[in-house]
Amino acid sequence: MSPPSPVRLKDAMSKWELIGILVVMTALVALSIDMMLPALPDIAESLNPAEENHRQLVVTAFLIGFGVAQLLYGPLADRFGRKPVILGALAFYGVATLVCLVAASFETLLLARFFQGAAAAACRVIATAIARDLTSGRRMAEVMSMAMTVFMIVPIIAPALGQLILMIAPWRWIFVALLLFAAGLALWLIFRLPETLHPEYRRPLRPLAILASYREATGDRLLLGYTLAGAAFFGGLYGFLNTAEQIFAEHYGLGDAFPIAFAAVAGAMSVTSYVNSRLVGRLGQRRLSHGALFAFTAISSLHAIVIAAGVDSLPLFIVMLAAAMMLLGLIAANFSALAMENVGHIAGTASAAYGFASGVIGAIIGAGIGQLYADSALPLVAGQAVMGLVTIGLVVLTEGGRLFGVGDEASAE
Question: pTM value?
Answer without folding.
Answer: 0.82
